[in-house]
Specification:
Layout: E1 9-11, E2 14-16, E3 22-23, H1 29-40, H2 58-71, E4 75-76, E5 87-92, E6 95-104, E7 108-119, E8 127-133
Antiparallel strand pairs: 1-2, 3-5, 4-6, 5-6, 6-7, 7-8
Amino acid sequence: MTDDGQAEIEVDGLKLNSDEEQPVPTAWRPLLRDVVRAFVGGDFGLGVGVDGVHPVSDEDAALICYYVADYGETLVELPEEAWTTSIAQQVHDNLWDVLVDLWTAESGRSDMVLQGRFDTSKPGLSFGVHLVYVP
């Protein structure tokens, strides 16, 4: 039971109606890997497109590009280890925020994260990139 008396239900490995941080579901990981892969290639606006991901605005793409460049290290694709520290958290009925720890060639796990939101109200994956930043 949650603090407000709602029952916790588990679906696809996620506890619903829970305020807890949880591991990113396995089914979401390939999409998130594709987003990071595009960023590694310099496509911060996702111009090539990633299935299930909303387009990134020019303004947000420019900010993400700036923050990655300002960090001063080379962004690399996500290793399997990234999932041990990345999290998902339910913020509303069908909305889940994710924080994915990003990795660099120089340091391995960096202080940067990819923050975005999944909407699970419809069939298929629906993800919006919010930002890359250092929390």
